[in-house]
Design a protein that fits this description.
Blueprint: H1 2-58, H2 61-71
Length: 100
């Protein structure tokens, strides 16, 4: 009986040692993967910031005015040339001609 307990303990020690080494190996793999994902997240965050900055620059009123005046050759219109049309509900939207 004593001999079987000693043999079991002798077999258990290398198995536990192997399990400990394997767990350490898996831990290192997970740390490397977490580091890689953190770097990727940082890169994407910086790319997103650059994109937002670019969009903001493209939307600037000064840039849009320059494009309208120079590239599209549009001209500024004064308030006297603006016509506002107000439709009241139920006044008809032109669909009467299609009804039977």
């Amino acid at each position: 009986m004593k001999m079987s307990v000693l043999l079991s303990l002798a077999a258990l020690i290398p198995a536990l040692l192997f399990a400990n080494v394997y767990q350490g190996f898996r831990f290192e793999q997970q740390e490397r993967e977490i580091g890689r994902l953190q770097r990727l997240q940082h890169e994407r965050f910086e790319e997103n910031k650059r994109s937002i900055t670019g969009i903001t620059m493209l939307q600037s009123p000064t840039r849009l005015r320059r494009i309208a005046l120079e590239d599209l050759e549009l001209e500024l219109v004064g308030p006297e040339r603006i016509i506002t049309i107000e439709l009241t509900p139920g006044s008809g939207d032109g669909d009467e001609r299609f009804s039977e």
